[in-house]
Amino acid sequence: MSSELSSNLGTKRYAVVTGSNKGIGFKACRQFASRGVTVILTARDSKNGLEALERLRGRGLSDYAHFHQLEVTDSKSMVVLADLVKAKFGKLDILVCMCFVVAHALSLVQYLN
Q: Which residues neighbour 55 within 8 Å (Cβ) at sequence distance 6 or greater?
């Protein structure tokens, strides 16, 4: 565990990982949640995203894992996610973009600031 992450374990942290229903994105969600970071797993397809969420819950990570359907190429979808993060958590500490649409991820960061 990195010293930066371990030094902040006493502070509640929030992460969004795009395209995280499988592969590296899913593993990132699992690692964040296992370290007490509340993570929002996102996927284009709700069925795949909810299945991934259930896999995290099956590992005892229910308190830290959430799912939100997200299409990163749709600015309205990004705004809905940003509004949810603001309303539910008040901040976003970590954004992991597992897609190649960096401009859309940057617009999410700008909207949250």
A: 26
